[in-house]
Amino acid sequence: MKQMLRSFLQRSLSPAVKPSVDRLDKKLAARLKHQDRQISRLSTQLKEMLRALRKLQRNSHDLPDATPSSARQEWEVAFPVELFAQTLLNPREVRSQLQEVARAQFGESADLGTNVRVRGPLDRRVPVPQDELLGDPAGELIASTTDELIEALRGFSLDLFTEHLGPHVGYDLAGYLRQTRIRVVAAVRELRRRGISSGRILDVGSLYGAFALPLQQLGYEVTVIDRYRDYPGLEMVVERLRKVGAHVVSTSRSDEVSILKSLGEFDVVMSMAVLEHIPHTPRQFLESLLSHVRKGGLLLLDTPNLVKYWNRVGVSRGRSVFMDIKSQYYAQVPFEGHHREYTGEELRWMLEQIGCSDIRVQHFESNIFQFEAIDRPQIECLLSIVQDPTQADTLLASALV
Q1: Are both 140 and 228 inside the same structural domain?
Q2: 164 located within any domain
Q3: Which of 305, 394, 344 is nearest to 88 (CA)?
Q4: Residue 333 burial by Cβ neighbours in a 10 Å radius (0-12, 13-18, 19+)
Q5: Which residues pair with 397 in a beta bridge?
Q6: Which helix (H) or strand (E) holds 127?
Q7: What pLDDT shows up at residue 21?
Q8: In 212-356, which ranges are E strands?
Q9: How far apart are CA 248 and CA 271, in angstroms?
Q10: Looking at the 3D structure of the chain, how many domains does it have?
Q11: To the nearest 5 percent, what fractions of the chain are helix, strand and coil?
């Protein structure tokens, strides 16, 4: 409209009047530009006031203590599939990244899991990025060692464990070993983060050798101890461990405590997926592990996370988080299933009680890693873990002695 008016005036007015019109046009343009700047400043101030108001409303004591989650989740951010691998191994870091994205888009009041929901591709299958986590030389060694172990254990019967785990025990051994790969990756990365690229490691409760086999081949001197004399079906595991150079200490239920006491000190003592099997108090077991770590050495543990996503889902549907009652009920004494699982804070607290320092507890997701691809139920699990990393299924703790 402004341009049309100017064109009309230029055609209609005499040359003597045109300079005055031009000056008027410039004044009008300057005034409009000034008004545009004022409107922009007012708009920015209004947005800041609205953000402050939302924050006040959220913090107000007049609000109910339990606001429905649907009322809190006002915004959404998309989950970048390229962060899938990092989410499995370090969900806390991914949450931090997406938190920054949310606050950049929606303001400082945005908070994942409170008023921001992570949106993902629920309507399609998503490949699990195994190559990304197993692509370096250590990962390739872990993958190949696991494949060989799965092949060696083909036909192995879990009936070996039914006496003390119960007649209903059963799991996909190959799937279990596939998902264990990410646990080994996490352990190797933590050792390297601590500056430990070599040295003597004691693996207490080594069972299938899923950790010891690759660690020995990565340059560590590994000693393993487990009840191999009580597990006559695992001779092929013992043979493989000895073949790669690991020192195997075979025990039974009756002498494992005394034999463990006779072992010396090590740079690293690790016990993976064992703590949850300890009955009564875990104190004596943890103190025993500690006694074999040299001064300045490292204690390394992993264990299932009590408050993982699938336990929360199970409880919400009226299911127990404990092992199948039928298995425990019919097991012979001593029952050797999971007596107690722990939270990350509980694990940290126990390590503090035995005098450890520089304690680091990580949450990561191992169950998903057994699959080639995941669909809606597992994707929903992954998105929940991004919003709240304490829902991941595995805890890894390392501490200096």
Answers
A1: yes
A2: yes
A3: 394
A4: exposed
A5: 301, 361
A6: strand 126-127
A7: 46
A8: 220-226, 247-250, 266-272, 293-304
A9: 15
A10: 2
A11: 50, 15, 30
Quote the pLDDT of residue 44: 66
Q: Helix (H, G, I), strand (E, B), or coil: what is residue 357?
A: strand
Instruction: Please indicate, yes or no, if residue 288 is contained in any of the structural domains.
Output: yes
Count of CA atoms in the C-beta half-sphere (13 A) of 348: 9
In the chain, the percentage of residues whose pLDDT exceeds 90 is 73
Q: Let me know if residue 73 belongs to a domain.
A: no
Cα distance between residue 142 and residue 66, in whole Å: 46
pTM above 0.70, yes or no: yes
155: alpha, beta or left? (left if phi > 0; alpha if psi -120 to 50): left
Average the pLDDT over 77-87 and give the result. Answer: 93
Does residue 151 share a domain with residue 42?
no
CA dihedral (189, 194, 198, 204) positive or negative: negative
Asked if residue 165 belongs to a domain, the reply is yes
DSSP state of 158: G
The domain that holds 381 is classified in CATH as 3.40.50.150
Rounded to 10 deg, the angle between the 18-59 and 2-12 helix axes is: 170
**Residue 333 shares a structural domain with residue 213:** yes
Q: How far apart are CA 224 and CA 260, in angstroms?
A: 10
Domain that holds residue 200: 127-400
